[in-house]
């Protein structure tokens, strides 16, 4: 019975890989345009199918959360170029959260046995010890690749609720900072006061939130 269950897991794990390969071969021109940052070419290829354009950028975000092959700044820039500042930013944040959730569940329920032995126990213990704050800080300060954060969280015992909340808050703040670049707000000659105000506000929010979480954690212990 256990052997059959193992084979079922392998089978289900292969499905997204095969679908991903198929998707790539069917959209090689789009992937080439993406790698070159050619937003006009992407628009041209999908100008009559906006739904597929949104789907394509969602799948790109899932790939980024799986392997961190594509820089986040490039994806956000393309989204803003394709959909406008507000919709592009919202779609970037939404797809990043959805992609992180997909990878989290895939790791926890499909690839856990396969990956547990290949990841250092100390890394998993860090996630379990700090839980919410580990994921939150990793999202804001990407000292750990996005894909690795998802993998470590999936292998750890962190609750899905904490993972989702930390990812949502962290990605919103980090993506907002990244979105300033394609939006043209970051400039040596323009909006310096606005930039420093945003940076200062982000730091204050982060410090206050960290103190609040630490106080809550200490009271719980």
Task: Describe the overall structure.
Helix 2 runs antiparallel to helix 3, helix 4 packs across helix 9 and helix 6 crosses helix 9. It is flat, with a radius of gyration of 19 Å. The protein has helices spanning 2-26, 28-35, 39-45, 50-67, 72-83, 85-116, 121-130, 132-140, 146-155, 160-183, 192-220. The longest helix has 32 residues, at 85-116. The chain contains eleven helices and no strands. It has 221 residues and is mostly helical.
Shape: flat
Number of helices: 11
Largest sheet: none
Assembly status: single chain
Structural class: mainly alpha
Distinctive features:
single chain; mainly alpha; 221 residues; flat
Break the fold down into its secondary structure elements and pairings.
Elements lengths: L1 H25 L1 H8 L3 H7 L4 H18 L4 H12 L1 H32 L4 H10 L1 H9 L5 H10 L4 H24 L8 H29 L1
Summarize the structure.
The protein is built from 11 helices and no strands. The chain has 221 residues and is mainly alpha-helical.
């Amino acid at each position: 019975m256990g052997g059959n269950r193992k084979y079922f897991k392998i089978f289900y794990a292969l499905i997204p890989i095969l679908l991903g390969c198929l998707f790539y071969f069917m959209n090689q021109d789009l992937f080439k345009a993406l790698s070159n940052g050619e937003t006009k070419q992407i628009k041209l290829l999908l100008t009559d199918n906006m739904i597929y354009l949104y789907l394509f950028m969602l799948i790109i975000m899932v790939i980024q959360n799986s392997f961190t092959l594509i820089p986040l700044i490039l994806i956000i820039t393309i989204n803003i170029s394709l959909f406008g500042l507000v919709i592009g930013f919202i779609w970037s944040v939404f797809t990043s959260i959805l992609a992180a959730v997909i990878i989290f569940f895939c790791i926890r329920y499909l690839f856990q046995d396969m990956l547990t032995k290949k990841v250092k126990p100390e890394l998993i213990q860090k996630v379990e010890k700090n839980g919410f704050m580990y994921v939150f800080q990793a999202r804001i300060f990407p000292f750990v690749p996005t894909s690795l954060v998802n993998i470590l969280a999936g292998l750890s015992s962190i609750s899905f609720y904490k993972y989702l909340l930390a990812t949502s808050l962290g990605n919103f703040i980090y993506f907002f900072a990244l979105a300033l670049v394609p939006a043209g707000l970051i400039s040596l000659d323009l909006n310096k006061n606005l930039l420093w105000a945003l940076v200062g506000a982000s730091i204050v929010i982060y410090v206050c939130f960290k103190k609040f979480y630490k106080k809550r954690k200490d009271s719980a212990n």
